Amino acid sequence: xxxxxxxxxxxxxxxxxxxxxxxxxxxxxxxxxxxxxxxxxxxxxxxxxxxxxxxxxxxxxxxxxxxxxxxxxxxxxxxxxxxxxxxxxxxxxxxxxxxxxxxxxxxxxxxxxxxxxxxxxxxxxxxxxxxxxxxxxxxxxxxxxxxxxxxxxxxxxxxxxxxxxxxxxxxxxxxxxxxxxxxxxxxxxxxxxxxxxxxxxxxxxxxxxxxxxxxxxxxxxxxxxxxxxxxxxxxxxxxxxxxxxxxxxxxxxxxxxxxxxxxxxxxxxxxxxxxxxxxxxx
Length: 282
What we know:
Layout: H1 23-27, E1 36-39, H2 46-54, E2 59-64, H3 67-78, H4 80-96, H5 98-107, H6 113-126, H7 155-167, E3 171-174, E4 189-192, H8 215-231, E5 234-240, H9 243-248, E6 254-260, E7 274-280
Parallel strand pairs: 1-2, 1-4, 2-3, 4-5
Antiparallel strand pairs: 5-7, 6-7
């Protein structure tokens, strides 16, 4: 790596349901002590980065079912210089003709690791609302966003992220959330931030991969959480403030409603005034 920066790392991808705006609230509900931190729905990684900054001795293991996203984290950690160079090429070509270049890149299916991750980050920075969405065939299908000067490279943050991931030796894997049962043990901390249960018929957004996260998946997640709790793990959930979510958790779980904006709503006036839930066993 050509440089090491001291700035605090932030998420390098914008992800639906990201937790940057809620970090200060979530931090108040984190356990004071734990051994290993697990995050099975990694997404943009806002909570992971806060955890790395605030708990220098904790081991961290993060995973997600989206293989492209996991590859992005591994690439930023291990090959950041090459990735930045590729993003700089995207930025230069985008500036010449944003519309045609965006859709040209969207149709590509690169096999090379650097180009694959670079394409994901480029589309994430230039697509509508920074929204990651794929169709039933697993194809990225978000239209071009309206940006006058998108920060496609964001070199300083990429170096900061790469630096802390390497120093702390964060482990990444592509796997289902149930796999946390294979590793987590007494004294560990597991944070679940799955695709939220919809609070209305028009609020359903679960297409992070080409497999939706269903109500049955949520039921399975609760069962996994109960097993972790019985094992002596600290478990924290984020989810929507819906009757279905509340009903699945027994009285042994503490449920806290917090205020939150929903940044993925196409109507900015409808992104405020919502509440969501933090659910914990400690």
